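Course assignment 3, question 2. Fill in each field.
Student: A.L.
Task: Predict the tertiary structure for the chain below.
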Amino acid sequence: MPMESGDLILLDDFCTVHKLEISFVRLLEEYGLVETVVAGNAVCVYGSELPRLEQMVRLHQELNINAEGIDAINNLLQQIESLHGAITDLRNRLSFYENNDRE
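Answer field:
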């Protein structure tokens, strides 16, 4: 999904603010955890990805988790989210059938 250029954050600025090497973000990109884009001469990340990217940076900086570990954590979080959605769907179905049995 293409984004407006106003939604782009300069990777250099992001790394400076978070005291992070650009190579770490590039490594996250290699694992498919973040997407960078080139705008003009600058490498950028989408503003919509900032919360996830900042979460990954905190895992790296505060817990000393490497990119491979962050990838594993990300996969587990996605599975949890998927399972949560499935549980919600099943609860809704159950509620539907329970309500129909009462009628």
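Instructor remarks: Confidence is low (pLDDT under 50) at residues 1-5. Residues 32 and 71 are 8 Å apart (CA to CA).
Grade: pending
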